[in-house]
Amino acid sequence: MPVEINGLLNHNLGSELVPTPMSHFDMDAIARQARLHDEGGYDRVLIANAATMPDNISIAAYVAGITQRLGVMLAHRPGFIAPTMGARLLATLDHLLEGRLAVHIISAASDIETQADGDFLTKEERYARSGEYIAILRAIWGSDAPIDHDGAFYRFRAGFAEVKPLQKAGIPVYFGGMSPAALSVGGQYADTFATLSDTVEGMTQVVSTVRAAAAPHHRDPAFLMSIRLIVADGEKDAWARADTVREQIIAASPRLAQNIVAAKADGFQRTAELAARGDRLEKCFWNGINQLRGGQSNSGTLVGDPDQIVDALLDYYDAGVAKFILRGFDPVEDTVRIGRDVIPLLRARVAERDAAKAAA
Hints:
There is one protein chain. The model has no long low-confidence stretch (mean pLDDT 94). β5 (147-150) and β6 (155-159) form a beta hairpin. By secondary structure, the chain is an alpha/beta fold. It has helices at residues 27-39, 56-66, 83-96, 111-116, 123-142, 180-189, 200-214, 235-252, 266-275, 288-293, 306-318, 333-359; strands at residues 4-8, 44-47, 71-76, 101-105, 147-150, 155-159, 173-176, 192-195, 222-231, 280-281, 285-286, 301-304, 323-327. It has one domain: Alpha-Beta Barrel (TIM Barrel), CATH 3.20.20. α3 crosses α5 (123-142), α5 packs parallel to α6 (180-189) and α6 (180-189) packs across α7 (200-214).
């Protein structure tokens, strides 16, 4: 199957290398990142969401107006707007993006963060609510007549959307989380199950676990993994840059914000456990920044020249991962380099591999 390549779009050009206050809102930076990803051959960009961040729905609508082919994976939290309104909002945004929207349902791991927005449900309750929310979205998108609903978290009469998603199959739903509650909901509702960076061995286990959770619901989700890349013309240069990145982040560390969400998330606990296994794993998996920042950073990194990077990504593809968020540490230079040197090569190699399998 073809691979899907996603990037990450922030509301400024800050990174671990150049920490920037969350309060700094930079429209020029948003436009620059959107166009770089659009021109670089990425399929979508993830636009994140958190309690104190700028509104990502507004940012997605802005991105829709300045790009030609780029899609958006919108992080979206149930619990703050009614699902009937959410269905209309997302369907409208899908039209603005000409059918290029996906929604990443975020249940949130941190009680502290959700309570900042007035949500006092427990983590397990939030995951259960997410499942009900997704079911309502799909019911509203697929219904030609108003519907009633009486559920554990939502109740309404004659809910309806005059506007339906432009995508006839509906807007794709991404979902993640490694807790039992997350796996239960993801197995039942996810079109794509999304994870943090991991080794091929780890992702093989994740794929098996999620498929087992999805099997009773007769679902076979796709899999997405977020991973960082350090790419250079040669292997030696790539590892030299990795050392430079680590030193730059050490120098910037007093200005890096603490990630209060990570401490509560099962996925980030896996990252911390992964970091403890060593600096370099498998072919070219580097734990340097995971070790530096503990469980606060989704920074498992592949390091090498383009051939080495693509060879490592193909191992994930063979393990069942056909979708990736690929990003580096510099939001401009690395976006360009990945688009130029990695994405075309990865697509070509996957096509060759699929053709060989079909001919066998």
